[in-house]
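Protocol step 4 of 5: obtain the predicted structure for the target chain.
Materials: sequence only (see below). No template structures provided, no constraints applied. The aim of this step is simply to have a reference model before the mutagenesis design in step 5. Sequence pasted as it appears in the construct record:
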Amino acid sequence: MKLDAWLRQDRSLEEQLRVIERLCQAVNEIHDRGDVVGTLAPGRIDVDADGRCDLAAASRGSPRPPYAPPEGERAGPALADIYAAGVIAWEILAGQPAGPAPAHLTEVRPDISRELADAVMACVEESPEWRPNDLTYLAQMAAARQRTPARKAAPAARA
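Step 4 output (C-alpha cells):
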C-alpha cells in the first residue's frame, strides 16, 4: 500500500512510530550506499503490513513541494532527503499535511515526547546546516517511543 493511502487510515501511535523508524532506516541504507532517494513523497513509498518502507518508486529526480527543502537542491540531495523524511514524519504524527514552515510538532501533537518532536523538527529545519546528516537519531527516537507509553497531554489552563 502506498503511504499516502496508509495515512488516510486510522493508525495507532505505535504503528505511526514503526513506519517512521523504518522509513528512516530505508533512507539511511540508501545514503550509506552513496545513493540518494531524490523524490521522497508519500505517494512514492510502499508500506507493507509490518511497516517496512520500499522506496523503489522514489527514484532520482527533483523533490516537489511540500517535500522539497526551502533551499532547493543547493545543500545537496542527501539533505533534501532528510528534509522530505522529516516532513513525512511530521505528517504521519500530526495526521495532516505539513505545509510550509510547519508548527512545532508538540503544538499539534502534545501527547508525544519533546525529544521525538524535536528530532522531527530538526529534519525540517529551514537552514540545511542545522539539519542532521542522517536519520539515525529520529529512527532511534521512534523505536524507543514504541516501547514507551505516550505521555498524557497537560490539562488546559483555567482562566
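Step 4 remarks: The mean pLDDT is 89. The first strand starts at residue 46 and ends at 47.
Proceed to step 5.
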